[in-house]
Amino acid sequence: MKELVVLAADKDLQFALEGLLARSEALGIQPIEKDIFVEPEHDPGCALRGVEFLRPFANQYRHGHLIFDHEGSGREGHARKQLQDDLNRAFARFWGEHRACAIVIAPELEAWVWSTSPHVAEIAGWGSRHSRLRRWLVQQRWLGRDEIKPARP
Asked: N or C: which end of the chain has fewer CB within 10 A?
């Protein structure tokens, strides 16, 4: 039995999870045998059919995760926590308690990249010049002067 199956809303999330989980030693955990699938209809597909997609895997994996952004899911009228709780109750019927869960991300995953962390500037090739990167983004009109992240990251 494999450890983890994930249904991710898009390739960006898939690559982020693969990168994170590939560094098990840095996280202080054992390597995780996993499979990560991408929902072709992205966030709305995850919100509508994610639990059902993962249902057949309950006997093949110890844990399952459904991960998508609240924004763009088509369920923005529902509170993020309520949506997540509803999906987790649906998981419990097939997976049992605490083996599978939904993670509804708010703000969207890409917003975390635009934090004030100096690592963003470094990875983007700006060295440790985070403030220069932000000024450049504003000059290019990709970021508003008072915005934390670009409107469409």
From this structure: N
φ/ψ (deg, to 5) at 105:
-85, 130
pLDDT in tens, the chain (153 residues): 999 999 999 998 999 899 888 888 877 889 999 999 999 999 999 999 999 999 999 999 999 999 999 988 999 999 999 999 999 999 999 999 899 999 999 866 666 666 666 777 777 777 776 677 778 878 888 778 887 766 665
* One-letter identity of residue 94: F
Q: Does this model's pTM top 0.85?
A: no
CATH architecture for segment(s) 2-110: 3-Layer(aba) Sandwich (3.40)
Contact 4, 65 (CB under 8 A): yes
> How are strands ordered across the β-sheet holding 34-38?
34-38, 2-8, 61-69, 100-105
Residue 143, token pair as written in the block? 């970021």
Q: How many residues does the chain have?
A: 153
Strand partners for 66: 7, 102
Residue (of 96, 95, 1, 105) closest to 52 by Cα position: 95
Instruction: State the chain's maximal CA–CA distance in angstroms.
Output: 53
